[in-house]
Amino acid sequence: MKRYLLCLPLLLSMAFAAEPATPAAAPATPAPAVTDQPLFNGKDFTAWEMVTSPATDIATVCHYTADGVIACTGKPVGFLVNAAIQEKDYRLHVEWRFTQKTGTPNGGVLLHISSGPKDRQWPLSFQIQTKFKSVGDVLPMAGGLCAELPTPPQTTPTVLKQKADSEKPLGEWNACDIVCRGDTIEVTVNGVAQNKVTKCVPHTGKIGFQFEGFPFELRNVRFAPLN
Q1: Which CATH architecture has domain 37-225?
Q2: Rg of the chain, C-alpha, whole Å
């Protein structure tokens, strides 16, 4: 009996050694990084157009400062549009500030700019509002539609932001992150998710910025297509 007990550890070790080792699980393949690209080249305004009536030379209303910021006069009323980007699914990062320290300066980021009717100077599009104290509101422009439009329709159709103001005081830089995927637009202002609109018509088009009479500055305007 003692002989068997002494041999038992040896037999057990041989049995375990005979079992094939379980291969380690392969590490998960990381998702490919989404690469942002600047929408302004830092030198000139190639691929951008100023749309006003009468026509305006973009170089007379926009210029680069020594530190690479884009300074815009905000006048005449109209909009700046990028003619090269017409992606359907993308992420857009915009940083802006109004240079005046008082009042209620107004402006906006335009998405899905499309051919079609105009409302005064504004094209068929969606405006992400940058007006002071209204940042994060979404306005379907010139007949644009979305599921969240209030009923009955307002004189100026507006889907109000969902949270308390997350914008900075006048004169300070704000950051807006916009995700357009399919027919949905999501808006985050200074890290706070402020709005989401769905069933957008149109749901693709160009990107631009409104000139509504108030000087403003832009920096770090970046775009990334989404898979």
Answers
A1: Sandwich (2.60)
A2: 27
Spatial distance between the Cα atoms of 226 and 180, rounded to a whole number of angstroms: 9
pLDDT of residue 34: 56
pLDDT(32) > 60: no
What's the residue count for the chain? Answer: 227
CA distance 108 to 126: 9
Domain locations in the chain as residue ranges = 37-225
pTM over 0.70: yes
Q: What is the DSSP string of 17-80?
A: HHSPPPPPPPPPPPPPPPPPEESS-SS--TTEEEE-SS---GGGTEEE-TTS-EEE---SSEEE
Q: Write out the H or E segment, with its range, that includes residue 5.
A: helix 2-18
Please, which residues bridge with residue 206 across strands? 113
Q: Calculate mean pLDDT across residues 158-171.
A: 96
Q: What is the pLDDT of residue 7?
A: 44
* Tokens of residue 66, six digits: 């020594």
Distance CA 190, CA 166 (A): 6
3-class DSSP string for 123-149: EEEEEEECCCCCCCCEEEECCCECCCC
